[in-house]
Amino acid sequence: MSEKKKKELPRKVVADNRRARFDYEIGEVFEAGITLTGTEVKSLRSGKATVGESYAAAKAGEMWLYNAFIPEYLEANRFNHETRRPRKLLLHKRQITKLAHAVERDGMTVVALKIYFNEQGRAKVELALAKGRKAHDKREAVKERDWGRDKARLMRERG
To answer: Where is this region: Disordered (predicted)?
Structure first.
């Protein structure tokens, strides 16, 4: 009857792509591991990475993360890494084929939503299968968000 509860540590978000939820219609979300060098991990722990314009693409049966910026680790001296190098993502084969087919057939994009450290301290990337929004769709999303905010305000005032 006594269940052991795991002490859940909050995951530390290093980089967040908040703009992606506005620019894209987010579909299915995946969690992927990422291969990093030692200096990249130390630089990520300082929390200055950006994934605002990054995307993932399949190449030779593997997924790669392109254009993610991880700054140089200043104490690493000459053993530093390239800041925007392509980084291999660790996914199951079935997930890779699913993402690759969706990009080829449906014209979707694989967008990086965030980089974080999980409970075990491993760096993970949250990927989403997304479809780009047109300008009128973005205006509609802003209207819905504003109306939701106004509705919540009215409900607080009345109740």
So the answer is: 139-159
